[in-house]
Amino acid sequence: MSDDADMAEEQLPLESAGQKLARTREAKGMSVADIAAETRIPQRHLEVIEAGDWSALPARTYAIGFSRTYARAVGLNEGEIADQVRAELAHATDDEPHRPTRFEPSDPARVPSRGLAWFSAFAVILLIAGGLAFFRGYFFPGSGPGSIVEPVAVAENAEVAGEGSEPSIQTASTNPTGAVVFTSLEDGVWVKFYDGAGERLMEKQMAKGERYTVPAGVQGPQVWTGQPEALSITIGGQQIGNLSLESEIVRDIPVTAEALVSRVAENTAAATRQAQEEAAVGPADNG
User: Which long-range contacts (C-beta less than 8 Å, at least 24 apart) are formed by 208-213?
Assistant: First the structure.
């Protein structure tokens, strides 16, 4: 062991970083749920930090970034907490070096920018307009101008129409079935797929444009990744959106067709609510 490591071990405080954060949180009368709501860090990760179980996080930078944000929320010196977490990580005995760190965000607790929120709101409006146009043409054929989304809103089995046909765009009016396919939108996207029993189906860093089809018949397929916003989903040839609208750690997420459609709908609704909240406080900020 090097002299630096010996010195770090001698100076390691008796109270761990997680214990210090938990003690300070309790002294302020705050619950773990309160911290999760303020920092946007999942509650399960906050509990892992307080327990000092760093191996439950995909990479050391997540441990340091989450702890720094936690410290800021409870009024502790975030630099000191980050240094203590680094020291604890250096002495951890259950490190998993095979876990990639390429997909780490600079601040895992960051929220989407105002520009991204407005873009998401605009996308939701277009999606709603497309759905209304679709229903209008279905129930009242011939009334008013044709739907602006008609060229891309093809039937559920559009892939059999011809070799050059494009996949349909997913809207709330469809109920897609068929193969679930994930496509990487960036290089180096680490992802792990596994079944309900925890048996690994696939684990790697996907290249940009690389696809993975969830095997049919697998019981309870799930996914774990740190870049859900870089994974596009198609079901039966229909694109339904991305696994998430922001960079975050997601784990044990079901990847059946029904679960993914529900998740994308929830993400879209959450983005709409956030955009509305930011729009409401915008004038106050400018003033």
Answer: 208/184, 209/183, 209/184, 210/183, 210/184, 211/181, 211/182, 211/183, 211/184, 212/181, 212/182, 213/179, 213/180, 213/181, 213/182
pTM over 0.70: no
Residue 276 forms part of a structural domain: yes
**Do residues 177 and 267 both lie within one domain?**
yes
Range of 162's domain?
A: 114-286
Q: Where are the alpha helices (DSSP H) in the chain?
A: 3-11, 17-27, 32-39, 43-51, 60-74, 78-90, 114-139, 257-286
What's the angle, vertex CA 60, arms to CA 19 and CA 263, rounded to 5?
A: 95
Convert the pLDDT of each residue in 47-86 to its tens digit: 989 988 888 877 778 888 998 999 999 999 989 989 988 8
* Cα separations in angstroms, 230 against 86, 167, 253: 28, 19, 15
Backbone angles phi, psi at 163, to 5 degrees: -65, -30
Residue entry with tokens 């609208």:
245
And the tokens for 227? 């870049």
Query: Are residues 55 and 133 located together in one domain of the fold?
Result: no
Say if residue 14 is in the same domain as residue 128.
Answer: no
In 3-state terms, what secondary structure has residue 232? strand
pLDDT of 83-141, one tens digit each? 988 888 887 755 545 454 444 444 444 555 677 778 888 888 988 887 777 666 555 55
CB 35 within 8 A of CB 73: yes
Residues 193 and 78 in one domain: no
Number of structural domains (the chain) is 2
- Pick the last residue of a domain from 90, 106, 124: 90
Identify whether 108 is part of a domain. Answer: no
Q: Does residue 103 form part of some domain? A: no
Q: Does 245 fall in a domain?
A: yes
